[in-house]
């Protein structure tokens, strides 16, 4: 038997950051996502990484549109991280699936045969969430992150990079994690998660000393998954 679809409206969420919390509206999300697309289109995303200048432009655009809102870079990054997570779970589930089509009218996935939903939910119970839940600006998000999802399913996260590098060698004097942290500081646009993590180690002063090129190469492996 086919499952009944009911209407669903999007809700705003609170974004953290410095100072006052920010409640995002649908109108704010629209400008936010469009601003990211624009920055990508004009070349302010390099090797999958949004530049510092891109974030400055995005924050300024939001401040002009919503002068009464406490928008800053941290809130922009947190909000896009939240939006990207929702898009990613939806995109990974439906891409290359037959029997489903994306509706720009309802902003939801639909199927002509209700039984298709039953079969999908049987194998992937989480799919039930997307029967009634719209995801706004899907095509814009696909433009931003679709290729990354398609190419980087097995890409390492910043945390995984950090852990792997820290475990490679413990018999040589070196800087270890602290060296990686300093390198990440120069890549703040995409590696904010790594900066925010504290993973102290009792043997942290006995690590392989990575060259700048080596650390940068390792960091770049994980960029596509978090940009």
Kindly describe this structure:
With 227 residues, the protein is mainly α. The protein folds into 2 domains: 14-151, no CATH class; 158-226, no CATH class. 52% of the residues lie in helices and 6% in strands. It is built from 10 helices and 6 strands; from the N terminus they run E-E-H-E-E-H-H-E-E-H-H-H-H-H-H-H. The strands form 3 sheets. The chain has a two-stranded antiparallel sheet with strand order 1-2. The chain has a two-stranded antiparallel sheet with strand order 3-4. It has a two-stranded antiparallel ribbon with strand order 5-6. The longest helix has 22 residues, at 73-94. The chain is globular. The N and C termini lie far apart (41 Å). Mean pLDDT is 75; it is low at 4-11, 169-176 and 182-207.
Give short descriptive properties of this protein.
Myb/SANT-like_dom; mainly alpha; 10 helices; globular; 227 residues; 2 domains; two-stranded antiparallel sheet; Myb/SANT-like DNA-binding domain protein; DNA-binding; two-stranded antiparallel ribbon; 52% helix; DNA binding
